[in-house]
Amino acid sequence: MEKSIIKDKLNRPLRDLRISVIDRCNFRCQYCMPADKFGPDFVFLPKSALLTYEELERIAKIFVGLGVEKIRLTGGEPLLRKDLPILVKKLSQIEGLKDIGLTTNGVLLPKFAEQLKAAGLIRVNVSLDSLNDKLFGEINGRNVGTQPVLDGIAAARKAGLGVKVNMVVKKGLNDQEILPMAEYCKENGLQLRYIEYMDVGSTNGWKMDDVVTKKQIYEVLKGKFELEALEPAYFGEVAKLYRYKGTDSDVGFITSVSESFCSSCTRSRLSANGQIFTCLFNGNGHDIRNFLRNGATDEELAERITSIWQGRGDRYSDERTEETAATRKKIEMSYIGG
Ligand code: SAM
Ligand code: SF4
Ligand code: SF4
């Protein structure tokens, strides 16, 4: 397929697409879907509001024609969406797409890892915020211990998928787990990425004071390990990577709060209800689902996506303050998928 390169107002090309396939989740992580806000009465999207796999395939093809090389599936919990390997298979057949990843809490990987790999999935990022069962159960709000997630990681590796581990660090919650997680991941050959706690959505009660910065995490690691910085492998690489000296293992940091990386942000997001978001923190989505369902042609869809991207000037993390975090209208993480 002929690829065009489109750039936004800050000259950033469109390279990545993150697709949230479902807004539901089997966890209620405190920093993402707090149980008191996402209780039994919470109304999730009806099935008819979700883009079908055929619609997602069509939109993904158009994005790839406009420059997207990588797609990541996320949620809510993406493995709760029925028959996800069918979608992966459809996406993996798109000419020009180089990479398909999945972000998951890992619990359903023992059931799906082999099928996902066979369908063309390349990598998974598994979220795990603690190795302590009691604490992990409190964080995920469902009292699920670490074993189901560790089993998920093992299943993904056995299936031949690339595996990274994501740990959100929140002050006073799991900062004591920084070192045990590093030791565990290093010993088991897993790349760990520490994620700074972010002010996504408006339900998690985020405060700047709750953020443990990359610098603070790095200081903890330095007490035990010798680290050397690695150069970014490509424009737009989000994680800042360090190698444990004298080994092949590395560790990464997603510094969305303390060292923003908006100037190289090449990522577009498609929410579970079919809206395009040009920034994780921009509450104004652009409808694509109804446009498509009302009979838009591929050319019209491509024109619309192009004009959305060309009109993009987002750099929220560059501008974030305690005040913007509290006052800006923002989309919930479970809709947009991180
Ligand atoms: N359910 C899947 C999972 O947990 O991996 C996929 C969706 S989840 C919204 C995607 C990523 O966002 C996860 O790595 C999660 O830890 C991260 N995340 C959620 N809330 C966050 C927050 N407030 N700050 C930083 N990262 C967050
Ligand atoms: Fe669910 Fe993932 Fe959010 Fe946790 S971080 S509540 S697993 S969507
Ligand atoms: Fe990209 Fe928005 Fe995050 Fe900046 S704040 S890196 S523009 S998603």
From TrEMBL:
Reported cofactor(s): [4Fe-4S] cluster
Residues involved in S-adenosyl-L-methionine binding: 31, 76, 127, 198
Coiled coil: none
Pathway: Cofactor biosynthesis; molybdopterin biosynthesis
One Pfam family cited in the UniProt record for this chain: Mob_synth_C
Binding site for GTP: 18, 72, 103, 164, 267-269
Cofactor note: Binds 2 [4Fe-4S] clusters. Binds 1 [4Fe-4S] cluster coordinated with 3 cysteines and an exchangeable S-adenosyl-L-methionine and 1 [4Fe-4S] cluster coordinated with 3 cysteines and the GTP-derived substrate.
Chain residues that bind [4Fe-4S] cluster 1: 25, 29, 32
Keyword Hydrolase: no
CDD domains: Radical_SAM, Twitch_MoaA
Catalytic reaction equation(s): GTP + AH2 + S-adenosyl-L-methionine = (8S)-3',8-cyclo-7,8-dihydroguanosine 5'-triphosphate + 5'-deoxyadenosine + L-methionine + A + H(+)
Function: Catalyzes the cyclization of GTP to (8S)-3',8-cyclo-7,8-dihydroguanosine 5'-triphosphate.
Description of how the protein assembles with itself and partners: Monomer and homodimer.
Protein name, as recorded: GTP 3',8-cyclase
Native species: Neobacillus piezotolerans
Gene: moaA
